[in-house]
Design goal:
Layout lengths: L54 H18 L8 E5 L3 H12 L4 E6 L2 H9 L4 E4 L5 H9 L3 E6 L4 H10 E9 L11 H5 L2
Parallel strand pairs: 1-2, 1-4, 2-3, 4-5
Helix pairs in contact: 1-2, 4-5
Length: 193
Amino acid sequence: MEPILRNPESPFVPKGEYNFSEPLGFVGLTANGAFAKYGVVEEYMTRKKPDNMTFEQGVIVEPDAVAAYGLQQRGMKMGDTVLITGAGPIGLLTLQVALASGASQVFITDISESRLAKAKEIGATKTFDAREKDIPKKIKEMTENGVDVFIDAAGVQSSFDTGIQSLRNGGIAVLVALFSKNVSHDALDQALR
């Protein structure tokens, strides 16, 4: 199932970019149904599962697409260094996509020891407890200038700050998390680095 709610009035729908419609909405976030045994959704939200695909494989398609799109559409190249803040399902899938895409180093932060252990198990170069001090400094020492790509899969001010401060000059930030609160950023500080 595709969880994005379309706004039929949006100018993005005819262009096939309904994911840019406003207001943003998702089943399970702004509408009931994420963990329900049964749900009623619009036809456009459904896809036929191929006969050779298990239900377990089917449920991972959408979150895996988020991870792949976040890196591939933002220009990650072989050899790039990557920081992922947040080692939940999307963060761990992004880690796998980054490794499969040829990242030379992938760093990941989280506050959960078990999630960080899983990240290390599947190939993270280095994991950091997100509460540690000076993570950007440590990452810059390990990469010489900072990471090429930062993916925020946590969606809080501290994950955003850690990622932005860990980027090399000219690096790319990709926000795949849904932020429940506004974040602030001093763009002049970024420009002066």
